[in-house]
């Protein structure tokens, strides 16, 4: 039987009516995080474009296709396949390319091939194909040619905001509570989300998106802690992993709204409003029992316990004093029995202690690599799905849809066959699927899409379980440090991901190939990590280093308490 604050779940239920209502209400807003993270796929979409054409066009020619209107030629035009030739009412002939235009001199016949002299001019403006994208940030601010880098900077800047937001709000939530942060970040998500739609210039757009990224990341980090502290240990693996599923629903919402709405600012407003009902009830959220007990707010904690008992149709017999006495008893036992761990804490352990021996250095490097490839692969597959060919909206929708079963299978596998035996095969499968894209003929797009989605499915499994796996691989004294440093590598992966996606300009499948090679190598290295399924949590560096080599005995109740303290941290 569990002890301390954790015991409240044995008496009030691990996931009964109260926790279920709170859980689904909290992860509903997590959908908005998935929405805003992937919204840029269509916000900064670049349609086909050409240099601005002269007025009074009477004839248009592209290869063997002719028309009297430039709008009719877009379905045949392919960038890099030659210029579009136009003729004006005055007889002038121009060759229009994406970033240059040339006037033909002394042209007699209107034909596609011309070998005479030309005068080349820079573009004074641009004309866009509005059949797919009616209006985007790119078309509004002409972010093409020499300004193309500004469009490509939008998503990395957003991901930088994600990194900073995770650092800031995670720390603030430990200081002032989970509930205030959930409310504040939700409100600011709505405000910044709407403000993005009404920015008057590119730089203000990027700034608002940066701030939106910070609060979205803040909500996502804190909601993991929030739902963890309201659900019992029997269901905690499932509830924490399926927050990712809500994020995946957000990706599917982006695909649906992107298909229906082709004007970027209307698209942005609809995406923001889609989760706004959360603001109507989030103020009713209670603070978590673990936080209230840790801060000595026992009266509020007792009221919360009584409310949970009432909603779960149980008698309100559990008293805060019982939980408090048990916590005090455990702290006293810890002080008496764990002198070795106390001595190590006094050493002011740092990140260098994760690399204190060759064995721990290899373990730490592999864990960081899994965090990195998990994030890199996740966002490369999501952001790059629109470049695979076929229908970009269906591709993005599938990129979100494949995640849902991946978390279900991941939860079952990690509790049945083990953490390592789930993570390593998942990474290897993702790597093989991505590398097979090399041999796919360019005209068989469906096969490339299937392989890419298989890679996303596999990477999502590894990405979903690495948090828990890292907790179990390190001792109590550096567990929070290990998870925190791993999370930092995850954010680095998310910042690098957009730049990796841009490599599709060189070869359409290059981003997936890079992820595949890295995933395969890291999957192979993961096989050298120890298995932690059924193993007690370790307290000292010596115990952690001995994982996988000799038995380690420890009180299971203390394990549960330590794991909960780590997750809260």
UniProtKB/TrEMBL annotation:
Domain Major facilitator superfamily (MFS) profile: 102-534
GO MF term list: transmembrane transporter activity
CDD domains in the record: MFS_SLC22A16_CT2
Domain of life: Eukaryota
Subcellular location field: Membrane
Main location: membrane
Membrane disposition: Multi-pass membrane protein
UniProt cross-references to SUPFAM superfamilies, sorted A to Z: MFS general substrate transporter
GO annotation, cellular component aspect: membrane
Keyword annotations from UniProtKB, A to Z: Membrane, Transmembrane, Transmembrane helix
Database matches in Pfam families: Sugar_tr (PF00083)
Regions crossing the membrane: 21-44, 181-204, 210-228, 240-259, 360-381, 393-410, 422-440, 446-469, 481-504, 510-529
The protein's name: Solute carrier family 22 member 16-like
Organism per entry: Sinocyclocheilus grahami
